[in-house]
Amino acid sequence: MSKIRVYMQKHFTNRSKKNQMNREKKVNIKKSRMLLKEILFISFMIIGVFFLIKIKTHMVSGESMLPTLQTNDRLFIAKGKSPNRYSLITFQPREEKEESYVKRVMGMPGDRIWLDHNTLYLNYQMSDTNPTPQNNWYLSGEELPDGTLKVRVTWETAAKLDGLSAIPENQFFVLGDNRSNSTDSRQLGLIKLKQIEGVVQYRYYPFNRLGPID
């Protein structure tokens, strides 16, 4: 009987230890799951705050940026990022503050500009030692300095640019990629830095064309 009693005591003791280990294991698993949930929640919160502060979205409407962008393309915009030459930016036109346009930066502060009536010449390669051609001074194609961009602007824009020999600080000349169907600096004039919402970084929709934007 004593042997049976000892055996039973050992059996129940081992079973008790095993049950305790199982309970501790379940508690540890539960704690791990709770910790993982907390980490995921905090991570999502950080990502959400980052997006609110640094990123905005933009939906393309119209054909002005074909073939680069199409109607209904959804974009991520890096807010507050300074644009480089050829960056795609979104900005608010002066007269339509509720609107948001997306265009390509073609002229940067300091670029040389001059006019032939309502034809604008823009050049970023001219050194400071080269004189800027005078406004309304006709130049044939052979005489244009290397890197010169020639565009026709409205007379209203030409009047705004008259007298300038370079793009002023914190102002930009922008164009749509689809020049034949775009409202840009040819009609709006130079775009000020304070009008710029940010630089286009990524297309997240449609899914078959998602990726970084050049």
Overview of this protein structure:
- The chain is of the alpha+beta class and 214 residues long.
- A hairpin with a 5-residue loop joins strand 10 and strand 11.
- It is elongated and about 110 Å long.
- It starts with a helix and ends with a strand.
- Its main location: membrane.
- It is an enzyme of class 3 (hydrolase).
- Keywords: Hydrolase, Membrane, Protease, Transmembrane, Transmembrane helix.
- InterPro entries: LexA/Signal_pep-like_sf, Pept_S26A_signal_pept_1, Pept_S26A_signal_pept_1_CS, Pept_S26A_signal_pept_1_Lys-AS, Pept_S26A_signal_pept_1_Ser-AS, Peptidase_S26.
Strand count: 11
The proportion of strand residues reads 25-35%
Distance between the termini: 87 Å
From the alpha carbons, calculate the radius of gyration and give it in angstroms.
32 Å
GO biological process, one term: signal peptide processing
Membrane topology: Single-pass type II membrane protein
Pfam family, one: Peptidase_S26
Catalytic activity: Cleavage of hydrophobic, N-terminal signal or leader sequences from secreted and periplasmic proteins
